[in-house]
């Protein structure tokens, strides 16, 4: 039997939360950061174990690798996300101003042919 959907969201189950606090489905960049962080922890821990054969230290390196890669991917992705949001806002304002001022005397794209310039 399938689980009954929530009343507010048709067809959606409970959102997946990492450690009960991080909703990786709705927070931008969370999913990719956690996935890259887990891959980074495996690579760092396994690489350290293959080089040194020290189990406990390799686990510590794996945890450190997870934290570093997750935070690095998180900040990089959030920076790009914020930059994209700013560009979208500027484009939206530009389109709004273009529609608002089109065919008026305030239109900056309209050429001023009336007075103000001296002729030869």
TrEMBL record:
A single GO cellular-component term on record: mitochondrial inner membrane
A biological-process GO annotation: mitochondrial respiratory chain complex IV assembly
Subcellular location: Mitochondrion inner membrane
Superkingdom assignment: Eukaryota
Protein family according to the UniProt entry: Belongs to the COX20 family.
Chief location of this protein within or outside the cell: mitochondrion
Pfam families associated with the record: Cox20
Protein name according to UniProt: Cytochrome c oxidase assembly protein COX20, mitochondrial
Keywords assigned: Membrane, Mitochondrion, Mitochondrion inner membrane, Transmembrane, Transmembrane helix
